[in-house]
């Protein structure tokens, strides 16, 4: 027994020595290899292997089963549906540059505000970018085949979207169209300035300035798309113009409630869905009156102001229903974007009197009083261009939240008589809700964003 014990002790000692020799050999080889390798690269003793975080690690509001994070907009909860811009402003302060929310059934939705990253995502989109559709609009249009052949340019995907885009947008996006539209924009700007001048009180304060900007958005968008003035900038607005304005406002509100609220409209027609249907029907009826009148006109001519309208009506290979739907989409998309842009940019200019003075002097030098504004004037207004670019860079994520920076809904601006101001803003519309479904994996701030994630 004693001999057996000695035998196992010898084996144990031998094993220990063998392990010690192997360990020493490994250390020696490692030291040699690493030492040789470090002659060619910089050695960083604090370097650590990079590990990417997952979607689950992205900060955001607490998620509930099934309901996701939609509870934050419920009554008596954190945020309000009529102030979504304030909700995102607060969440970006709370959670940082990237936020994770969850839609119903806990589908993750990621929001970012980094312009460079957003640009990278947009540039890496495929031939047919995948955009989350507006479900309430798509659902309604599918239920009305008598009026719509598809869900429209904004909501369609793939080849159908590409066909609509190629046939309906060339004239609208052409620089030639903008140049031809310039004289009408000059008149629009003069009318807007006159309207603001009449709205000022004795202290140069304009109350409810946003509503006047929205009227400018309505008038300019309708003039560009429909080829005629509607009188939104006049003292008294016509009945048709009032119906159009009310329909657009109602459509936006109903879409917001349907988008952020519980989708009970999928089960039964909720109030929001009924309001949306009513506004969509009214828009369709108004546009139909204008389109049908133009189609009956045998002497339809493509004047400078009507070029976009005529190009849509004469687009080959499209049903008239597609053309009417495109006009409705263009009007709805253009009105609020221009209104928000005017509010935001004019606010920043008004907050910096020195910048305001430089802009005014540049414009006065290029186009003295009484001089018609031309494309060349706009091209040479370098300081004005720089200010607009800087304004978008400085607070671009706040484009949607412009209204929150005005205390008590009161605004004060110096009224310019130069129409250049308005024309430049028309070239830079606000797009507060750009979304993509990622078509490939992305990494942002050490977070791994997989294919198929919805990114706002």
Automatic annotation (TrEMBL):
The keyword Metal-binding belongs to this UniProt entry's keyword annotation: yes
Cofactor(s) demanded: heme
Superkingdom per UniProt: Eukaryota
Keyword Metal-binding belongs to the record: yes
One GO MF term attached to the UniProt entry: oxidoreductase activity, acting on paired donors, with incorporation or reduction of molecular oxygen
Keyword set, alphabetical order: Heme, Iron, Metal-binding, Monooxygenase, Oxidoreductase
One of the Pfam families matching this protein, by short name: p450
Family: Belongs to the cytochrome P450 family.
PANTHER family: CYTOCHROME P450
Protein name: Uncharacterized protein
């Amino acid at each position: 027994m004693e001999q057996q014990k000695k035998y196992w002790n010898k084996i144990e000692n031998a094993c220990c020595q063998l392990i010690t020799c192997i360990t020493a050999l490994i250390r020696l080889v490692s030291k040699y290899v690493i030492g040789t390798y470090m002659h060619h690269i910089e050695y960083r003793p604090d370097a650590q292997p990079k590990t990417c975080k997952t979607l689950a690690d992205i900060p955001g509001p607490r998620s509930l089963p099934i309901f996701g994070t939609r509870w934050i907009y419920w009554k008596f909860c954190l945020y309000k549906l009529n102030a979504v811009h304030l909700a995102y402003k607060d969440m970006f302060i709370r959670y940082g540059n990237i936020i994770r929310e969850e839609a119903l059934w806990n589908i993750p939705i990621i929001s970012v505000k980094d312009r460079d990253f957003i640009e990278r995502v947009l540039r890496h989109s495929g031939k047919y970018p995948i955009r989350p559709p507006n479900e309430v609009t798509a659902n309604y249009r599918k239920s009305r085949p008598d009026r719509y052949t598809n869900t429209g340019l904004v909501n369609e995907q793939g080849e159908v979207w590409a066909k609509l885009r190629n046939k309906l947008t060339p004239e609208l996006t052409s620089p030639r169209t903008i140049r031809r539209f310039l004289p009408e924009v000059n008149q629009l700007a003069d009318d807007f300035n006159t309207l603001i001048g009449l709205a000022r009180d004795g202290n140069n304060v304009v109350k409810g300035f946003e509503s006047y900007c929205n009227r400018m958005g309505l008038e300019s968008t309708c003039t560009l798309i429909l080829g005629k003035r509607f009188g939104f900038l006049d003292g008294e607005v016509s009945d048709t113009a009032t119906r159009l304005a009310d329909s657009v406002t109602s459509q936006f509100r109903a879409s917001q409630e349907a988008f952020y609220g519980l989708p009970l409209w999928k089960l039964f027609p909720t109030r929001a869905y009924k309001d949306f249907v009513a506004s969509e029907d009214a828009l369709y009826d108004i546009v139909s009156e204008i389109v049908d009148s133009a189609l009956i006109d045998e002497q339809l001519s493509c004047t400078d102001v009507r070029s976009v309208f005529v190009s849509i009506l004469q687009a080959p290979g499209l049903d008239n229903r597609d053309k009417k739907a495109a006009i409705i989409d263009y009007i709805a998309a253009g009105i609020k974007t221009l209104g928000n842009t005017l509010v935001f940019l004019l606010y920043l200019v008004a907050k910096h009197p020195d910048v305001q003075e430089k802009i005014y002097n540049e414009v006065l030098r290029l186009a003295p009083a009484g001089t018609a504004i031309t494309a060349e004037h706009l091209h040479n207004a370098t300081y004005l261009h720089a200010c607009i670019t800087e304004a978008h860079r400085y607070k671009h994520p706040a484009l949607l939240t412009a209204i929150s920076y005005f205390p008590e809904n009161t605004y004060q601006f110096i009224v310019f008589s130069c129409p250049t101001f308005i024309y430049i803003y028309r070239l830079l519309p606000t797009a507060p809700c750009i979304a993509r479904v990622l078509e490939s994996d992305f990494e942002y701030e050490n977070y791994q964003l997989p294919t198929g994630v919805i990114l706002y």
